[in-house]
Amino acid sequence: MAAVVRSVLRRSAKEKAASSRWWIRGFSAEAAPERKVTILGAAGGIGQPLSLLMKLNPLVSSLSLYDIAATPGVAADVGHINTRSENFLSADDFGVKGYVGEEQIKEALEGSDVVIIPAGVPRKPGMTRDDLFTINAGIVKSLIEAVAKFSPKALINMISNPVNSTVPIAAEVLKSNGVYDEKRLLGVTTLDVVRAKTFYAGKANANVADVKVPVVGGHAGITILPLFSQANPKANLSHDVLHALTKRTQDGGTEVVEAKAGKGSATLSMAYAGALFADACLKGLNGVPDVVECAFVQSNITELPFFASKVRLGKNGIEEVLGLGDLSDYEQQGLESLKSELKSSIDKGISFVHKA
Ligand SMILES: NC(=O)c1ccc[n+]([C@@H]2O[C@H](COP(=O)([O-])OP(=O)(O)OC[C@H]3O[C@@H](n4cnc5c(N)ncnc54)[C@H](O)[C@@H]3O)[C@@H](O)[C@H]2O)c1
Ligand SMILES: O=C(O)C[C@H](O)C(=O)O
């Protein structure tokens, strides 16, 4: 058993190094700057595997795990893993510390370079992401108030749904606190990209590790717009196949919610996607060149104030929001159709902060 685990770890490390996506390019972990990553909602379905994956990332020197319950256990568990952060902290916390409840959020957040937020309720079958707004909007608002006070310079990776509204909520709360920097607020849409790559690789008969597919728009239903016309490697797929791939990417979250039958939504694939995205943010902060990922950010590439597209990440967060490139007629139609839904989700987030 141990030999199998070792061989899986060896293989995945090789693959990661080969694709340059995970481990840092250009310098070793020992030479990497100290970086504190904080996870708000760390004891949840996403939070726990995400905590594990961030503990495995050599770019992380200190991992802060915050939730309203259960984080001491998660921190004690993850803290015994002998990866990098042990080198940088005391013999008591091994680089990982759990914080519970509002009275500990200050300490949890102070000095954070990246704050990842998967706090909030997940969907059950029959619900839309917007149905989560009533509960999650308030959770996100209060957590961002704390970020604004205690780690205003951190890069925020927003996972909590509905992302199309929680990112605008976060922006308004940061503005009200006088600390908004649009370069530092990013809605995590990486799972849409992960799905688009996986589904495309199956149809295009391509090695999934080599596939690239941008996904733009937002993170709910038709607002998720995969641009298969820009996929690499190229494949000659029929309109029907491209339509089916688009639908499957848009409905990927619902596919998992239904399969889990009341036990939540995507957690493991989301933890993977969240870890990839946070790794890209850390690489950008550390000055690694040409780190480009899709994310839902403040944008002027369409008439909408927030939009997901490729962004270049750097030492200050978002260095550049990249344009959409050439779209097929089908994608152009998809773009026009998503705008009104995305606009109303954005507006709903903004007005929530000003009404509250
Ligand atoms: N962006 C994406 O692609 C994506 C993908 C999957 C899930 N999600 C969203 O992520 C969120 C979390 O999903 P999950 O499956 O981990 O849910 P979960 O219920 O398993 O975990 C949520 C965690 O948040 C914690 N929490 C609640 N209120 C909190 C607060 N005020 N402060 C700190 N922590 C708090 C809970 O205690 C719990 O541990 C959901 O909103 C879900 O829809 C987003
Ligand atoms: O679908 C959900 O509710 C969770 C998440 O947004 C996903 O895409 O899996």
CATH topology label of the largest domain: L-2-Hydroxyisocaproate Dehydrogenase, Chain A, domain 2
Q: Describe the sheet with the most strands.
A: 6 strands, parallel
Q: Give me the Rg, rounded.
A: 19 Å
Q: Domain count, please report it.
A: 2
Neighbour order of strands in the largest sheet:
3-2-1-4-5-6
Structural class: alpha/beta
CATH class of the largest domain: Alpha Beta
Shape assignment = globular
The percentage of residues in β strands lies in 15-25%
CATH architecture label of the largest domain: Alpha-Beta Complex
Round the mean pLDDT to the nearest integer and report it.
91
Bound molecules: nicotinamide-adenine-dinucleotide, (2S)-2-hydroxybutanedioic acid
- What portion of residues is helical? 40-55%
H and E string? HEHEHEHEHEHEHEEHHHEEEH
User: Any idea what the CATH superfamily of the largest domain is called?
Assistant: Lactate dehydrogenase/glycoside hydrolase, family 4, C-terminal
Task: Describe the 3D structure.
There is one protein chain. The protein has 356 residues and is an alpha/beta fold. It folds into two domains: 27-187, Rossmann fold (3-Layer(aba) Sandwich), CATH 3.40.50.720; 190-355, L-2-Hydroxyisocaproate Dehydrogenase, Chain A, domain 2. It has eleven helices and eleven strands. The chain has helices spanning 2-19, 47-56, 71-79, 105-109, 133-150, 163-176, 190-204, 239-250, 252-260, 268-285, 329-355; strands at residues 36-40, 62-67, 96-100, 114-117, 155-158, 185-187, 215-217, 224-226, 291-298, 306-314, 317-321. The strands form three sheets. The protein has a six-stranded parallel sheet with strand order 3-2-1-4-5-6, with helices on both faces. The protein has a three-stranded antiparallel sheet with strand order 9-10-11. Helix 5 (133-150) runs parallel beside helix 6 (163-176) and helix 7 runs antiparallel to helix 8. The model is unreliable at 1-27 (pLDDT under 50). Nicotinamide-adenine-dinucleotide binds at residues 40-41, 43-47, 67-69, 118-123, 132, 136, 139, 142-143, 159-161, 163, 188, 191, 219, 264-267, 270. Nicotinamide-adenine-dinucleotide (NAD) binds next to helix 5. NAD(+) binds at residues 41-47, 67, 136, 159-161, 270. The active site is at residue 219. Belongs to the LDH/MDH superfamily. MDH type 1 family. Substrate binds at residues 123, 129, 161, 195. It catalyses: (S)-malate + NAD(+) = oxaloacetate + NADH + H(+).
